[in-house]
Structures are given as structure tokens and as C-alpha cells.
Amino acid sequence: MGESDLGNYESSRLHAEVEHEREVKEMLQDSVSDLRNTLADLERRLHSVEEEENEWRTRYETQLELNEQLEKQISVVRERLQTLRSDPSDRLASIRSYEEMSEDALRQRLKLLSSEKSGLQAQLMDFRMRIVQEGKAYQKVYEERRAYLAEIAKLSSTLNLSRKQQMAEARRTAAAPDKTAGKSTKQHSGAAKKGSVNNTPARSRLPRLKH
């Protein structure tokens, strides 16, 4: 194989290596692009979940405040009833006030008190149920948020690995021409030295001229 053929072979091999590295680089770039798009989508979904989580947290805290107020109202009513039962004078005063009322007024009063009592009890039960339901909804949103964060962390790690691989491939591609050129130079230099060595004995075998 002559020097020209050797040079053509080295050039073809170098071109093939460069093309292979280019294809690998493009593949890595596509993978990185896909990962970035997926990561961006997850971050948008996480932002939406966080907004929903804040909304549920606000509703949950508001519900707790309403329940606390209702509990206070019920507590006041119970204390009032307990006072009426334990304080004879106060009870007699209430009785005297009722004695002054007509039978229809007493019935209306009793009906109103019973209605208020039933309403308060119904509200209390409803608020308790809503607290349980909204607590479950809040927990669900919280679990979804944790899942999104875990997925984002996983994708970020994969993206960083792909970037490192891409940089390594780029460095190897940049170093390949220098190595190939050095190898080719050494081969040409070796061939030249071999030719020089082979020519030296040939000159030594020539007959000496007689004077």
C-alpha cells in the first residue's frame, strides 16, 4: 500500500469516525431536548398542583376557623343552659318571663329554639364532614406534588448525565483528528526511516573504483 493509498485510508477512516460521532451527538441532543421538554411540562404541572394545593389549604384553614366559631357558639348555648339549670333565681326569672307570654308565643319560642338547635347541630355535622373531605383532598394534592418533585429530580439527574456524555463525546471528537494525524505522521516517518536503512546496504555493496 503506497503513501497515497495509506493517506486515503486514514482520511476515510477519520471521516467515518467524525460522522459516527456527529450522529451520536445529534442523538444525545435529541434526547436532551426531549428531557428538557418533559421537565418543563412537569414543572408546569407542579406549579398547577402547588396553586391547587394553596387553594385547598386556604379552604381547609377557613373551614377550621368556621368550625371553631361554631363550636364556640354551641359552647355558649350549653353554658347558658347549664346556668339556667343550676341557678334557681335565673331559672325563675326565665320562667316568669315565659309566664307573661301567651301560649302561642311560647310555642313559637320553643319552635324557634328547637330550630336553632337543630340548625347548629346540622352545621356542626356538615362542617365536620367537609373537614374530613377537604383533608383527604389536600392529602391527595400533597402526594401528587411529592410524585412530581420526585419525577423532576429523576429527569434532572438523567439530563445532567446526558449533558456529561455529550461533552465527553465532543471532547473525544475534537481529540480524534490530532491523534490520527500524529499516528499517520509516525507511520510516514517510520516508513521513511525504513527506506533509508534499506538503501544504505545497497550503497555499501557497490565495487570500489581502482586508481
UniProtKB/TrEMBL annotation:
InterPro entries linked to this entry: DUF4600
Superkingdom of this protein's organism: Eukaryota
Alphabetical UniProt keywords: Coiled coil
Coiled coil, from the record: 25-123
Region (Disordered) residue spans: 161-211
Pfam families: DUF4600 (PF15372)
Entry-linked PANTHER family: COILED-COIL DOMAIN-CONTAINING PROTEIN 169 (PTHR28671)
Name of the protein in question: Coiled-coil domain-containing 169
Record organism: Danio rerio (Zebrafish)
Lineage of producing organism: Eukaryota, Metazoa, Chordata, Craniata, Vertebrata
